[in-house]
Design a protein that fits this description.
Blueprint (H helix, E strand, L loop, with lengths): L5 H21 L3 E4 L13 E3 L4 E3 L3 E4 L4 E9 L3 E3 L4 E7 H14 L3 E7 L4 E6 H6 L8 H6 L5 E5 L5 E3 L6 E3 L2 H11 L11 E2 L2
Parallel strand pairs: 5-8, 6-13
Antiparallel strand pairs: 1-4, 2-3, 4-5, 6-7, 7-10, 8-9, 9-11, 11-12
Length: about 200
């Protein structure tokens, strides 16, 4: 997970959103960027407004001739290694994940999480409800708490992201268990002695 300054995260995240949107469009889909509704300065989380509550929406609404869905986009350098479970994982803010679940219920459109992973140069994709069902923990380690100002996170097993988005064609392909294992082995190049900030004790 990223520990970059917020303004830099915002800029990099928006660049990745646009790049993924272009890839999806190339795959003969239509895309609505929620960031187009992010306020005058582009720093407000786009929301669905309701009578009793407002819901933060994922970054993209996507549709093709068969279905429509939401996609939340993240740009991370690496997954984080969880020692207790011996699993590589990615995380997002827990309150956003809860909002996305409510958005899925209200809109009747599934929510997917797509992560541009720079260590493997892959865009890995998982259905949010499946990721949550197999989540490891809601408790961040010390580094993650510092990076996110003490906010609560939810972490997902990297192995649960079973699709790959090809940026050159917009095609979405299923990753085999063997391919997922090979990608995780590539992550393991960053052993704890060299990159201690990627590894959590809890």
């Amino acid at each position: 997970m990223s520990r970059r300054p917020f303004a830099e995260q915002l800029e990099r995240g928006h660049f990745t959103e646009v790049a993924i949107a272009r890839a999806l469009i190339q795959g003969d889909r239509y895309v609505l960027l929620a960031s187009e509704f992010s306020g005058k300065n582009g720093d407000k989380a786009p929301k669905l407004f309701g009578q009793s509550q407002d819901l933060v929406v994922p970054d993209l609404m996507v549709c093709d001739s068969r279905k429509s869905w939401w996609s939340e986009i993240k740009d991370y350098d690496n997954p984080v290694y969880h020692r207790k479970s011996r699993q590589w994982r990615h995380g997002i803010l827990k309150r956003h994940a809860e909002d996305y679940q409510r958005v899925e219920c209200a809109s009747r459109l599934e929510v997917y999480l797509a992560i541009k992973e720079r260590s493997t140069d892959k865009v890995i994709v998982g259905r949010l409800r499946d990721l949550i069902a197999r989540s490891i923990s809601h408790c961040p380690g010390e580094d993650a708490r510092k990076a996110y100002g003490g906010k609560e996170l939810i972490f997902f097993r990297r192995a649960s992201f079973v699709w790959r988005l090809r940026m050159d064609s917009g095609r979405v392909e299923v990753a085999t268990p063997k391919e997922i294992d090979a990608e995780i082995e590539a992550c393991e190049v960053a052993e704890p002695k060299r990159y201690p900030h990627l590894y959590e004790q809890a």
